[in-house]
Amino acid sequence: MMQNVHLAPETDEDDLYSGYNDYNPTFDTEDLENDIAFQQAARTSHGRRPPVTAKIPGTSASRPLATGIGVCFCSDGVARPMTAVHAAGYTKAAMRGSSFDPLGQARGPAPPLEMKNSDSSEEKIRQLEKKVNELVEESCIANSCGDLKLALEKAKEAGRKERVLVRQREQIATAENINLDLTYSVLFNLAGQYAANEMYAEALNTYQVIVKNKMFSNGGRLKVNMGNIYLKQRNYSKAIKFYRMALDQIPSAHKEMRIKIMQNIGVAFIKTGQYFDAISSFEHIMSMSPNLKAGFNLILCYFAVGNREQMKKAFQKLIEVPLEVDYDDKYISPNEDPHTNLLIEAIKNDSLRQIERERKSMAEEYIMTAAKLIAPVIETSFAVGYDWCVEVVKASHYVELANDLEINKATTYLRQQDFNQALETLKMFEKKDSRVKSAAATNLSFLYYLENELAQATNYADLAVNSDRYNPAALTNKGNTVFANGDYEKAAEFYKEALRNDSSCTEALYNLGLTYKKLNRIEEALDCFLKLHAILRNSAQVLHQIANIYEIMEDPNQAIEWLLQLISVVPTDPHVLSKLGKLYDNEGDKSQAFHYYYESYRYFPSNIEVIEWLGAYYIDTQFCEKAIEYFERAALILPTEVKWQLMVASCYRRSGNYQKALEKYKVIHRKFPENVECLRFLVRLCTDMGLKEVQEYMTKLKKVEKLKEIREQRIKSGRDGSARSRREGNAGGDSGGTKGERLSAKLKALPGTSEPYESSGSKEIDASYIDPLGPQAERPKTAARKRTEEDDFADEELGEDLLPE
Questions:
Q1: Which of 24, 241, 317, 585 has the fewest beta carbons closer than 10 A?
Q2: What distance in Å separates the CA atoms of residue 656 and residue 196, rounded to the nearest whole number?
Q3: Which comes out higher in pLDDT, residue 516 or 411?
Q4: Which residues are CB-neighbours of 510 under 8 A, at least 6 positions away?
Q5: Residue 25 has pLDDT above 50, yes or no
């Protein structure tokens, strides 16, 4: 099918360009300076160009040019003033001849700023929001300063004001205008302060408010904090549950956060005894991001399950944990450049270097503790286990720890009472470098000092000091050896040098105080112990020494005050309690003295001094029946001393129980047949009670008194013989010996002398005793009324030698 094709009519080329040939609008500007016609026109055309006009749209009228403030016409033909040039200073007045003032300086100063309306709702909300932020900041600052109660109060006040703020915003605006960040910070701070004050229930409730609010995008992470609270409450199952919930809500991009949560999960598993689950957590951590705590906890888990091989592998993993610290080689100048040396000195002890040291010290502590834990169990003996640990440590960058492990091996021998092996192990370090040699020699000196081998202790103390003159432990041991030899002045010098090297060496400071006490420099000794008390606030030894010094200085009030502090540290120490009782007794406060003596007796009922005081106290207060209990215990402790049994009998007699008193005297007489006091009481009791045994006891009393006279004569003759032998030589010695033999024969012939006890009636009864805790000062005694044969029995008092006041 054919299509109709419309062809354009042919056009001639001349017809196309005929218009262009007729008019050419382009103008040649290349030679205007030489164009005479153009230059003439330019000179004569100024001021004669007609004004440019434009037609107003829709009309035939022309639009005049704007001059100054003119009038412009809108599309509807309405004229309006042209004000667009006001800002540039063009005014209608300027066209009338006034000066040009574009800055408006002629108008005077600007009007004052409009005051804010403090009564407006928006302003009140802004001020309240500012106050809430200030309260949150104050709460955090108080917490950092340790004032937890104030921090909690500020947090609660911030919460109250924040709730008021929310209500006000809801009244004047929509809910979208609520400041969620402020609400989150207030609730989070309040929960933290509750937890810091151990108000765990309130803290959990506050965290729940945050977690359940879907408007807080990252609130789910706070389940970690909730898990921490449950861990503190020992609710380990819930702690693990919340840790896992938090772990699910933290993306894998936050690797460090996930590792820390997994570490908490592992610790919670250890607390519950689920060691295999804990091992899984810590193994994952060590494979992803190894750290010291996870490695050490992994060793603990394998130790708990008893897996020796895995303990070794975990120990190797712990040593391989990167510390990311620079070692000491970095701080050694490679040349003598002063600028480099100055730079190295500046960074040698800066804050970053201190952090590196702390991290390295922590790593060494973990490795040492782990080695001491696994060494006794990973091999057949602890020595072999220590050797394996030493070899592994030597192969790492902790080479210095190998020597410390060897010294710890010697310490373990000491704990096992194997002194020979300990000495041999320590002697191996004599050829090591100076630091290790000094440490080993210090321990050797201490060992020999304990064994009272002062010569060897002195030798090794000298070796330790010569190897490292700045080792405070070596100087302290050297001072101890000098102190043991009695040279207190020199010992004090060594202790002072140790303190100059290390002012925190408490052993040297304590020994220096003891040395000053020996030198009778009491004030200086007190100063040492007071300084030590500032370092060791709850040291019982330091508190006792301070109290003792005040007692030496005859300041009983201060001594009592320090002893009261001491019993707050050791409330069951019977010696301290009896010391307090003695001081109160000397001060005349019998009630307080009785309280502390009785407490001392309750904790240690074998102190004779305490028993004697309590018995005498009840005698003074006319409670003889209660005194019997204490004197019977004293007689049980010292059965060979007649004094306590006589006191028991005297208490029965004073209380009116004559029958028991008679029986007790008879028991005493059977044990001590030569005791004159016992026989005298028996004679009087039997006489007053009308018993037939009176004659028997009178006969025995006479024989004992006669024996007493004979012994006194023998003692007198023995003294005379000694004086005569000094005057005459050995000649009189034989005759004295013969006379002594005759006296011995007479003593054997007397009846009733076959008992092995020496008569206590032959001389004044000795009321002294041997204190098992050491010699004690005697209590002051008052003279008792002298007994005579004519005294009435009922009024008779116990003698000074039998019952101390």
A1: 24
A2: 67
A3: 516
A4: 528, 529, 532, 541, 542, 545
A5: no
Round to whole Å and give the CA distance between 618 and 627.
5
Centroid of chain to Cα 434: 33
Instruction: Answer left, alpha or beta for residue 159, where phi above 0 means left and psi between -120 and 50 means alpha.
Output: alpha
Q: How confident is the model at residue 726 (pLDDT cuts 50, 70, 90)?
A: low
**Which residues on adjacent β-strands are paired with residue 63?**
54
DSSP secondary structure of 459-504: HHHHHHHHH-TT-HHHHHHHHHHHHHTT-HHHHHHHHHHHHHH-TT
The long-range contacts involving 483-486, CB below 8 angstroms and separated by at least 24 positions, are 483/511, 483/514, 483/515, 484/449, 484/454, 485/454
C-beta of residue 142 within 8 angstroms of C-beta of residue 154 = yes
Strand 71-73 and strand 62-63: pairing? unpaired
Q: How many CB atoms lie within 10 A of CB 154?
A: 24
3-state DSSP: the chain helix, strand, coil percent, rounded to 5?
A: 70, 0, 30
Once rounded to an integer, what is the mean pLDDT over residues 118-126? 77
| Burial class for 521, CB neighbours closer than 10 Å (0-12, 13-18, 19+) | middle
pLDDT tens digits, 66-91: 444 445 545 555 555 555 555 555 55
Task: Specify whether the backbone of 390 is left (phi greater than 0), alpha (psi in -120 to 50) or beta.
Answer: alpha
Helices (H), 570-693: 574-586, 590-603, 608-620, 624-637, 642-654, 658-671, 676-689
* pLDDT given for residue 106 in this prediction: 64
Q: How far apart are CA 599 and CA 584, in angstroms?
A: 14
> In the structure encoding, which two tokens stand for residue 221, read together?
């992470």
Whether residue 428 has pLDDT greater than 50:
yes
Radius of gyration, alpha carbons of the chain = 53
pLDDT at 606 over 80: yes
The token duo for 362 is 């922590």
Q: How many residues does the structure list for the chain?
A: 805
pLDDT tens-digit map of 750-787: 333 333 323 333 333 333 333 322 333 333 333 333 33
Q: Is-contact 478 465, C-beta < 8 A? A: yes
Q: Which amino acid is at 657?
A: N
**Two tokens at 119?**
């009564």
DSSP string computed for 332-343: S-SS--HHHHHH
Instruction: Report, as an integer, the average pLDDT of 602-628.
Output: 90
Name the percent of the chain lying above pLDDT 70. 73
279, amino acid identity: I
286 neighbors 295 (Cβ within 8 angstroms):
yes
pLDDT value at 16 more than 50? no
Backbone torsions φ then ψ of 55, nearest 5 degrees: -80, 145
DSSP letter, residue 174: -
- The backbone region for 779, taken as left when phi is positive above 0, alpha when psi lies in -120 to 50, beta otherwise, is beta
Which of the residue ranges 325-329, 337-341, 554-558 has the most confident prediction, judged by mean pLDDT? 554-558
